[in-house]
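Hi R.,

Here's the chain you asked about this morning:
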Amino acid sequence: MVEEEQKSTPQHLYHYYRVTEHTEAIFTKNEIYFASPLNYNDPFDTKIAYIFYGPHQNKAEYLAKLCKRYYPGKSTKEIREFANKPSMHKVFVNRASSSADKNLREHVGIFCLSEINNNTLMWSHYTDSHKGFCLEFSTRTSFFQKTSKIIYQKELPIYNILKEPLGHERMKLLFIKANDWAYEKEWRLLNFGIGPGIYKFPSEALTGIIFGCRITPENKEKIINWCRQRNPRPQLYDAVPKKTEYGLDIVPFDYPA
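And here is the predicted structure, written out as tokens:
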């Protein structure tokens, strides 16, 4: 099964960047940032629709167990009355989903990648209007072998609390996004528990860098010089506007003498 998944993973995945004060650390320290989905431009990213669906008796038993755990001083009669109220079922799912959503989204760090390196929308949105760059990573390194492909659909992913008590099973739902984003052909790495922050990737994982068609000569020169010090050196590319159609050609070039 793992071998099949690896075969379906592209040989390279790409991450679009704008030039910032943190750019140098990518090339000199192998540092990349796993972001919090709470800061994404899509408010629905990692959003889950929680439900509490099943026979009334099963829901009552579930709530009774929770009540015993959190309110050990309550009598058996009080617990039974509490757990059998349909109104309390609604209160529970509202509170549980709010708490679960907050806990999950605050404690996960995400690094997003794409199958494609020439999408003009992503160059516009994520590289400061083509003034940035795009990194090419090899998925054959252990660090990037853990990437998973995004599934695009119309509805929010649904999680039945009664069927699957809140736990790590929800992680797979963080790889579902709205159809509107399908053009990005996204894959992502997750780090749950430690959460957002800076992580190091192996040097050999960075196999290429693509310069945006509007990057300044100064920024381009800086990045090339940082890449000269790397071992192995990544391949250099330019994103060049096509002459007779909308789009970009990714053209390799050699390190300047």
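One quick note: The chain is about 30% helix and 25% strand.

Cheers,
M.
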